Amino acid sequence: MPTPSMEDYIEQIYNLIEEKGYARVSDIAEALGVHPSSVTKMVQKLDKDEYLVYEKYRGLILTPKGKKIGKRLVYRHELLEQFMRIIGVEEDIIYNDVEGIEHHLSWNAIDRIGDLVQYFEEDSKRSEELKTVQKRNETDPV
Ligand SMILES: [Mn+2]
């Protein structure tokens, strides 16, 4: 299993490859707000653990194992953003909150949150009901 930090790298590499077709060390460093030398180090570790293949002058590609986990990590991030939006978290803090929690939930919890997101999406009345509760709590805090 990848560590939280490895997950961040795999997730960003997967995103970059989806968006641009490739992932350069400099792009990964920028996406994660870290120094390129940290990226090189981690990329070497991810290569050793067979999540990707890294060649210094030719860039990197994800292995099937890396792609599979990358896809799951991106799905998890997007699902948690949806969840945050549904429960009414302010838009400009959603990304950071998701980055903060995504590595610390079990896949069981992720699947159950998936059910909850689906529950709200299947009937817009459910979201309206939640908003009613939220409005009540604003005027009359618990
Ligand atoms: Mn993320």
SSE arrangement:
Layout: H1 4-20, H2 25-32, H3 36-48, E1 52-55, E2 59-62, H4 64-86, H5 91-101, H6 107-122, H7 124-139
Antiparallel strand pairs: 1-2
Largest sheet: 2 strands, antiparallel
CATH topology of the largest domain: Arc Repressor Mutant, subunit A
Radius of gyration: 18 Å
> How many DSSP E strands?
2
Give the low-pLDDT segments: none
- The CATH homologous superfamily of the largest domain is named Winged helix-like DNA-binding domain superfamily/Winged helix DNA-binding domain
CATH class assignment of the largest domain: Mainly Alpha
Q: What this model shows, in words?
A:
The chain is mainly alpha-helical and 142 residues long. It has two domains: 66 residues, Arc Repressor Mutant, subunit A (Orthogonal Bundle); 65 residues, Diphtheria Toxin Repressor, domain 2 (Orthogonal Bundle). It has seven helices and two strands. Strands 1-2 form a two-stranded antiparallel ribbon. A hairpin with a 3-residue loop joins strand 1 and strand 2. Helix 4 crosses helix 5 and helix 4 packs across helix 6. The site of manganese (II) ion has 5 residues, from helix 5. Pfam families: Fe_dep_repr_C, Fe_dep_repress. GO terms for molecular function: DNA binding; DNA-binding transcription factor activity; manganese ion binding; protein dimerization activity.
